[in-house]
Task: inverse folding
């Protein structure tokens, strides 16, 4: 018994001395942004804010998808998180290299493919051209914001990027990237990072009912091509896009109102009209 207790105590000491393990994942959130001037090109369409406040997380599943009405527009936020779930290292790339902004080894770039079922929804893309390099900002925009609490006073600021070599724009995909123009995004002093917004993309539903899945993928799987890269060259892509994450599926549905709902709405309107007619009749009498 004594030996067993000693062994358990040793295990506890080792556990406390080992650095916290963390996984890096992407999450979906729903923006509350409503453009003052709708459209796909700036100007005149309103641009997505460069510091859109993080909205509620979207917890979708095959049985509980994110529902669009026909023709509805939603603005989907992409956030990054470093949590307490393994793995820390994949293919030699170590997430623990990611430090607070004060220590300098921050996330300075990101890049991903946003893939959507074109039969159900679109993600409008307008090819940027001089002098209107920001003309696609009503449709997709990289984000800026403060460091996590205790992670440095200088915020992060990603400038929007759309690779010119990507060929699937407006055909089921958008290539989205960001290059930090400030201090980079650091983790909290704990080594973890709460959901932190890095990009917002507009998704527009068509008129065809159905269900499908939005996914995110690595734009370049070469070990030397870091979409999500730290200042020291660490490539987080291998951790982010590991098979366990299954390309970050976001289940969506385009649904028309049920006939019963439409009938109830019609009855409500009819009742409203009948009450109005009765009031008019009473006044005349």
Result:
């Amino acid at each position: 018994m004594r030996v067993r207790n000693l062994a358990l105590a040793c295990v506890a000491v080792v556990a406390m001395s080992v650095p916290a393990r963390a996984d890096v994942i992407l999450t979906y959130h729903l923006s509350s942004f409503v453009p003052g001037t709708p459209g796909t090109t700036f100007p005149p369409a309103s641009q997505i804010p460069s510091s859109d406040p993080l909205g509620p997380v979207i917890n979708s599943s095959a049985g509980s998808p994110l529902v669009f009405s026909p023709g509805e527009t939603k603005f989907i936020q992409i956030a990054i998180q470093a949590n307490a779930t393994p793995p820390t290292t994949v293919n030699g790339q170590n997430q623990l290299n990611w430090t607070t902004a004060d220590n300098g080894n921050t996330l300075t770039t990101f890049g991903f493919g946003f893939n959507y079922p074109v039969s159900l929804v679109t993600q409008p893309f307008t090819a940027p051209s001089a002098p209107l390099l920001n003309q696609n900002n009503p449709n997709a925009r990289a984000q800026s914001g403060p460091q996590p609490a205790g992670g440095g006073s200088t915020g992060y600021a990603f400038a929007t990027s759309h690779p010119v070599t990507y060929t699937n724009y407006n055909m089921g995909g958008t290539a989205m990237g960001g290059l930090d123009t400030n201090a980079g995004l650091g983790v909290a002093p704990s080594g973890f990072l709460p959901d932190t917004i890095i990009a917002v993309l507009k998704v527009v539903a068509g008129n065809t009912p159905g269900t499908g899945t939005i996914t995110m993928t690595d734009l370049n799987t070469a070990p030397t091509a870091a979409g999500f890269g730290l200042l020291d060259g660490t490539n987080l892509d291998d951790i982010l896009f590991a098979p366990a994450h299954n390309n970050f599926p976001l289940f969506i549905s385009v649904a028309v109102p049920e006939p019963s709902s439409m009938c109830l709405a019609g009855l409500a309107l009819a009742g409203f009209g009948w009450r109005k007619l009765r009031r008019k009749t009473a006044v005349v009498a």
Remarks:
- The longest helix spans residues 259-284.
